[in-house]
Design goal:
Blueprint lengths: L1 H6 L1 H7 L8 E3 L5 E3 L2 H11 L4 H6 L3 H17 L3 E4 L10 E2 L1 E9 L5 E10 L19 H14 L2 E7 L7 E9 L5 E6 L7 H16 L2 E2 L6 E4 L5 E6 L2 E6 L2 H12 L4 E4 L4 E2 L2 E6 L4 E5 L1 H10 L22 H4 L4 H20 L5 H8 L7 H16 L4 E5 L5 E9 L10 E8 L5 E8 L7 H25 L5 E6 L3 H8 L16 H7 L24 H12 L8 H9 L3
Parallel strand pairs: 4-8, 19-22
Antiparallel strand pairs: 1-2, 3-9, 5-6, 7-13, 7-14, 8-9, 10-11, 11-12, 12-13, 15-16, 16-17, 17-18, 19-20, 20-21
Length: 575
């Protein structure tokens, strides 16, 4: 086993690139172990100082000084503020403080990218009379996933761009005075990071710039734009991160050139990462994979599993009865915080690229406010599963028919205590691709039969299908989306037949809009066998074989496979 650790030592280094520290050490007996969690966290804190004073005294002082100078140069070029004398500030005006915020920007795989310093206003001290609107939307994750899936199938070009110092472009109408870290007083002429209205002002400025070029904003997602005419380009914006999709790379470059007239931007002609996703694309085989290996590696570095054991087939903790008093006892405040951080991180991964974790995380979130020792053990079981499948993600395949399929399922009487069942649904573009939408929720109503529970799930899936069709219509794309598979024949008969029965008369009218959709041929609900219902993975603890089969359908690829050496290494490097 020592040989395996030494042979794959470089892989462990790649896993934790974002921490400039050897994460393994050799004990006197020759064995190799992970360094302590406390030492890792300490080095991370050393890498990202809490203040500029500490940064200039540290080992990376030159990089932080250069980043600070670049920030001030950018502020001066944009004419963000003008210097004023403190005595000239009106008596009724409030002078807010400012501070430097330091961060080491990383690539999607966690490796260092650049040192960043931002001059940030203390918006928490801002006078309410100096701002009105504060909300700024960002593109929905499901919209980004759907666009990437379509782009892969249509063989479009995918590019990304990042707007430098984005929040400095919005013009301010209200007089705001601020004290710089060196004590000088300025009046802000443009928006600045930290102000309540900063995000809204930039969003407004970006919208005006895109409309000027010829883009039209979608009603289904106010952060997605489409350019029609002689050039056709789709654009999604998440604050200052832009995603371009088009059948012609020249059209994308033309749009980038137009935006460069208004913003200072960096441009990647071939997208390799976006919003923390690592994008791996093979245009010859028409496959596109999204994974979050960097996020996974950081999670495992901060919260290494307390025990490794054998390689798990599922992330579930199957023990449901016979709990000991110790397992039923509540966690301490420290462990409760750890449990909540682990669960929150797992939830982020599950709703983005790891749909196979969704049900396990769903069960953990039910205990967020009152976790037990048993719940922390369940969280660590999910971490062990994640450790062995760190490179996994959702894969889209383009060599399939351009049809969107949905799957809806519910687990009757699966709730704890209040008997509110879990339901889930998912959508994929083509039968080979992974899911671009994965949902697992807890019903707000108590179903009195499995038919009723399945109807609730089907109704929620129909609502999502309506949004998908509206989104595709605004994009001017002709992709069929009307099929939602169901495995309950009674539910299918209910929605296809008119009238009420004694068993269904109590069901709320709002769930019967499914009948209208089917009558209008907006939705069709073909039957699928229970063992072929992919959405089962979101509603219940499945046997290993069923879980493995459905996880391949959800992710569009094998969960294990090429990561076996990775899992072998981490299992060997136990403390």
């Amino acid at each position: 086993m020592k040989t395996a650790v030494l042979r794959h030592k470089r892989l462990l280094h790649v896993l934790h690139k974002h921490v400039p520290l050897r994460l393994t050490r050799r004990k006197k007996n020759g064995s190799i172990v992970l360094v302590s969690k406390a030492r890792i966290i300490q080095r991370i804190n050393d890498l990202t100082p809490t203040s500029m004073k500490k940064a200039l005294l540290g080992s990376n002082a030159d990089q932080w000084r250069a980043a600070r100078d670049a920030e001030h140069k950018s502020l001066e070029e944009n004419k963000t503020f003008e210097y004023v004398n403190r005595v000239d500030v009106p008596n009724d005006a409030k002078i807010i403080k400012s501070m430097y915020v330091l961060k080491v920007a990383t690539h999607a795989d966690g490796s260092p990218k650049k040192f960043k310093v931002r001059l940030v206003a203390r918006g928490d001290l801002q006078d309410p009379s100096t701002y009105n609107e504060t909300y700024a939307s960002t593109c929905q994750r499901k919209a980004v996933m759907l666009l990437l899936s379509i782009a892969n199938q249509q063989d479009w070009s995918i590019s990304t761009a990042d707007i430098s110092t984005a929040f400095l472009y919005g013009d301010l109408e209200e007089p705001i005075y601020m004290e710089l870290p060196d004590g000088q007083v300025v009046r802000l002429l443009k928006s600045l990071y930290g102000l309540k209205q900063a995000a809204f002002k930039f969003k407004e400025h970006l919208h005006d710039a895109l409309v000027k070029i010829g883009f039209t904003r979608l009603e289904t997602d106010s952060s997605v734009y489409v350019l029609c005419g002689t050039r056709k380009v789709y654009l999604a914006s998440h604050v200052d991160d832009l995603l371009f999709l088009s059948s012609s790379i020249d059209d994308i470059k033309w749009v980038y050139g137009k935006l460069s007239e208004s913003y200072s931007m960096t441009f990647d002609e071939i997208a390799t990462e976006y919003l923390g996703y690592t994008i791996t694309r093979d245009r010859s085989s028409k496959t596109l994979k999204l994974d979050q290996f960097g996020t996974v590696s950081k999670l495992l570095a901060n919260f290494p599993p307390n025990r490794f054991g054998k390689i798990p087939a599922t992330p579930y903790h199957r023990k449901t009865i016979g709990f000991t008093p110790e397992e039923e006892s509540l966690l301490s405040e420290e462990n409760k915080s750890i449990f909540q951080q682990i669960t929150g991180s797992l939830l982020y991964l599950a709703i983005c690229t790891r749909g196979d974790l969704l049900y396990a995380v769903h069960m953990l979130t039910r205990r967020m406010s009152n976790p037990r020792v048993l719940d922390l053990q369940r969280a660590h079981k999910a971490l062990v599963y994640l450790m062995h499948t760190a490179h996994s993600g959702v894969t889209f395949h383009g060599d399939d028919e351009p049809v969107i399929y949905g799957w809806a399922d519910s687990a009757f009487n699966s709730g704890e205590g209040d008997k509110k069942n879990a339901f889930g649904y998912c959508f994929q573009l083509g039968r080979k691709s992974g899911m671009f939408i994965n949902v697992c929720r807890r019903s707000t109503l108590i179903a009195q039969s499995s038919t009723e529970a399945e109807l609730y799930a089907l109704a929620e899936a129909c609502r999502e299908l309506i949004w998908i069709n509206s989104f595709l219509c605004e994009l001017d794309l002709s992709i069929a989306c009307k099929t939602i598979f169901q495995d309950n024949t009674t539910t299918i008969n209910m929605v296809y037949q008119d009238g009420m029965s004694e068993r269904s008369k109590h069901i709320d009218v709002k769930f019967h809009f499914v009948k209208r959709l089917i009558r209008n041929k907006t939705v069709v609900c073909p039957h699928v066998a229970t063992n072929g219902m992919i959405a089962d993975i979101f509603t219940k603890d499945l046997p290993d074989e069923s879980y493995g089969r459905h996880s391949v359908s959800v992710l569009g690829a094998q969960v294990y496979g090429t990561v076996s050496t990775f899992s072998c290494l981490l299992r060997s490097a136990r403390q």
